[in-house]
Amino acid sequence: MAILSFRNIAHYDKMIDTHIIDSLYNVYVTTSLLQIKSIGPKLVPFFKSVSVYFVLLAEQPSLLTACFKCLPIISLIIFVLLHGINLSKEYAFSRRILTGLVFSCIGDALLVWPNCFTAGMCMFAIAQIMYIFAFGFKPLNLTLGTVLYMSCSIVIYALMPGLNGILAIGVPIYTVLLTTMAWRAISRVQFFGELWTWTKLCSCIGSICFVISDTLLGFHYFHSPLPYSQISIMLTYYAAQLGIALSAVDSKNNSNIRVPTNKS
């Protein structure tokens, strides 16, 4: 009888845990759908400015070219601001994403002029550092980090023959920062231990697009010219920044959501 009672209690506890998880999941899905529906109109300026940039697609350095290139990132900066931001601890993630977008925007403007490439790369390095601190180092996921850093080493090795002067130091450093950012963003997507969020998936996809964009840029400038380079580089870049900006939508709530687990 004691064994039977224990089994009934264990079964009852399992039913309660399943019910709680199902309830939390339903609440999360409903909330996510409402969030996605509400952010659509706020992203209209971003998609319009991206369309304008690709329609014009000016390759000659000019102030007008810099303005059109920066407009999509400015739209994302406004998007993050519209979701609320202040100096409290719960908005630390959003502040860091916002700061990263601001430095990215400055970097975009500088990269319009070839002689400002190093300065532009420095701005993007700061942006990557802000994104790294936003994404944090939990969970660590050393296996993923090892794979990404090995890939990073291969890219650096391939680009080194085309790097001269300060770029021979700056490009490898930036590549490591970019890889670290991708490692931290991808590691945030956990299917066990906490409720999975679509905004974390956005930052994951965004970081991958960032790696693709900057890898294309690196090989185009320092290895061998690529066909349709400007379109492919900028398309993946804007997708990257969009994904990262979207990660700020529910960032202040993510740390408070956990799936109940049995503890012995």
From TrEMBL:
Q: Which InterPro entries match?
A: TMEM86B-like (IPR012506)
Q: Where in the cell is it found?
A: Membrane
Q: Which GO terms describe its cellular component?
A: membrane
| Molecular function per GO | alkenylglycerophosphocholine hydrolase activity
Keywords attached to this entry: Membrane, Transmembrane, Transmembrane helix
Listed EC numbers: 3.3.2.2
Report the enzyme's class at the first EC level: hydrolase
**Its domain of life?**
Eukaryota
The answer to whether the entry has keyword Metal-binding is no
Catalysis performed (reactions): a 1-O-(1Z-alkenyl)-sn-glycero-3-phosphoethanolamine + H2O = a 2,3-saturated aldehyde + sn-glycero-3-phosphoethanolamine; a 1-O-(1Z-alkenyl)-sn-glycero-3-phosphocholine + H2O = a 2,3-saturated aldehyde + sn-glycerol 3-phosphocholine
Instruction: Mark the transmembrane ranges.
Output: 63-81, 117-135, 142-160, 166-186, 198-222, 228-249
Question: What is stated as this protein's family in its record?
Answer: Belongs to the TMEM86 family.
Q: What is this protein called?
A: lysoplasmalogenase
